[in-house]
Amino acid sequence: MGGKIHRNSLKPGHKILWYEIKEILGQGGFGITYLAYDPNLEKHVAIKEYLPIEIAVREGDFSVHPVTEDRGKQYAWGLERFISEAQTLAKFDQPNVVRVLSVTEENNTAYMVMTYEEGQSLQQKLQGKKTLEEAEILKILIPILGGLETVHKAGFIHRDIKPDNIFIRNDGSPVLLDFGSARQALGEETKTLTSLVSPGYAPFEQYFSKGDKQGAWTDIYGLGATLYRAVAGIAPQDAVDRSNAIINNSKDTNVAAVEVGQGKYSERFLKAIDHAIQFKSEDRPQTVAEWKSEFQLPDDPIKEAEEIERVITQPGTKVIEERKATKTPFVDKVWSILKNATYTVFIMLVVILIFDMYTSSIQHKGAKPTNKEAAQQLAEEEKHLKELEQERQEEKLILVKKEVESIVNFLQKRNGVMYEPNQDKPFTGKYVTYYDNEQKKKEGDFKDGKMVGQWTSWYEDGQKREEEFLKDGEGDGLYISWHDNGQKSSEGNYISGKRDGQWTDWHENGQKFIERHFKEDEVDGLSIAWYDNGQKLSKENFINGERDGLETEWYVDGQKKSEGNYISQQKEGLWTDWYDNGQKKSEGNYVNGKREGDWVGWYENGKKRREGTYKNGVSISQQKYEGDTSEKSKFNKAADEALRKMFGDNHVPY
Question: pTM of the prediction?
């Protein structure tokens, strides 16, 4: 993803502290990881930004805020855990665990600064080779086990081990990246983040349980599934798909590693993998040490790998392996002679070197500088070094001054009013800020410490970003914003800081995105949304911010997706859902937002799937039908049955 710009990301050139953003390394539901440059140490670093896109959004001033006030506590809760995770990881000085250098809070969010590793992920390596030899796998596994054991002993778990999160440096040494504990904790809290688990690599307890049910055995499953992928060429069957057979005491539907890798890998190695990916957490090894012991075979390269593991290496250091060859008595004798000869030659070289140094000092004795000359030379060198350091400090001061002048913090905010430093009178006058490239960033007027009149902001390349009118620090009048490609992003009116009247948003390609009417900052009236291809996405009606009336949704190809009525934000009356092939998916009635009466569900092929009767949202009778054996849906028949057993009929989707 390097080099691309995401609409929520910071742009290349933006600075976090003194780190300069270069490009995006990765983007997920929990945040964005950037490649950045540290000018002080003259090296690249990786910076991960906390930005959970389902509950937060970036504003025009680069700050990140919850999408609604209701999400505020959840956002702050996740931010606290993100910072705590960074502080925990920073304590680990282990070459096979990602090195966290620092964490800082800025833009109402937090940034985790990490060592930037060069190489490729295990996923990339497997895409090229499909499977790996046992010895090659063990050279990756053993160092990772050492790192994971260190993490677990500190009371911490990774919670997202998969090939994408094991990175192979250019020297061949592995490192464990992208810990998922904070991400999953936030997902459990908000029930919104969609990418909480990695199918195939996440055990069943990560789908449906809180963090207190997870432990070392959870990470062991993820690492075991990663080994399975390296052996079989595919990930294990997803835990949800395995659940139905397991819960009903039937045979596990996942094909065991001992079957997939038979004849290609040692049996002990394959059995250890199968033990790690057992469905029930109590059936797996409970600690890394316990699982590690299962790999130790007399004829296995694991012993050599363990010797390597005991040597503490730093990231970027290549481990040179010394293989122990079986020697005959004759070979031993020859080796002894050679070894003694080597020692003799070494000693002779040392003696020659010492003698040369001694004679050299005698020859140059007459040219030796006096104490005065030596002191003078030393003083000149020290003076030169001080001048260089002074120039460096002056350059830093200029940069710091420019940075301070380019942000609003040179004004002091007191009770919502801006003051000049050490002044009691609120600031009045023109205000302009600039980027480091001297391009205007923001311009407008203050009156009595509050923003008034027309305010304009620009992107770093000079493209206009926002234009708005303010009164007493609040929006009052026309507001327009633009995408960084120059295409209009949104347009509407404010009255006393609240949206009022018609508002329109556009996609980056210029296609209309959403059109709606506001009344005192609440959606009021018809709201229509479109896909970026111009196809209608949804049509709904609001009264004072609540859905009220008919709502219809469509797929991107124009096929109807769902339709039904709302009354005061609650579903009411007949509701129908369709598959993207036009076939009905489910149909039934709601009363006060709860299912009531007869409901029917169908498979994608049109055959009836189930029908039943609901009362006050609770199923009182159901009839299931066989009619489709496809595995297209993630929560297919097996998942439905597992959910039914765990949560009851009311939680089984149609």
Answer: 0.47
